[in-house]
Specification:
Blueprint: H1 6-16, H2 19-45, H3 51-79, H4 91-113, H5 115-118, H6 121-134
Helix pairs in contact: 1-3, 2-3, 2-4, 3-4, 4-6
Length: 138
């Protein structure tokens, strides 16, 4: 334990002790930020910025972070020895799902903002990988 009360440390330990969990959380934060910046910039450039759409987007990002927080809680609960009927950690999976969603959203925004880029071979490859991951084929 690192000075935190056990009832807090038990939830942080699965993150602190797992590089994949740390990378997954970082990827979630970066892709959420990327999608938000791209969406805002695209709306501003099109002179189409709407505070209502922005509020909806912020609410979606907040619920995604809550989804990840549920993964943290579940993994901490498992690490703490409480049997909740889930035997394997879920945080990295929750994060992977959010990262895939955010990457798909970022690709849509990039494609809308720059149609020439959207027609590039690399963009098509990224798009097909993203779509396959969303369908569970990857």
């Amino acid at each position: 334990m690192n000075g935190l009360p056990i009832y807090i440390d038990v939830f942080l330990a699965p993150i602190r002790d797992s590089q994949p969990a740390q990378v997954a959380l970082g990827a979630v934060l970066l892709t959420i930020m990327l999608d938000w910046v791209l969406g805002t910039a695209c709306a501003v450039l099109r002179h189409d910025y709407s505070s209502e759409v922005a509020r909806r987007g912020i609410a979606h990002k907040a619920t995604e972070l809550c989804f990840v927080l549920l993964g943290v809680i579940i993994d901490g609960t498992i690490a703490g020895g409480l049997n909740i009927g889930i035997g394997e950690p879920v945080l990295v999976g929750c994060c992977a799902y959010i990262v895939i969603m955010e990457l798909a959203s970022a690709l849509e925004t990039i494609g809308a903002a720059n149609p020439n880029l959207a027609r590039s071979p690399l963009f098509r490859v990224l798009r097909s990988v993203s779509e396959a991951a969303e369908k569970g084929e990857a």
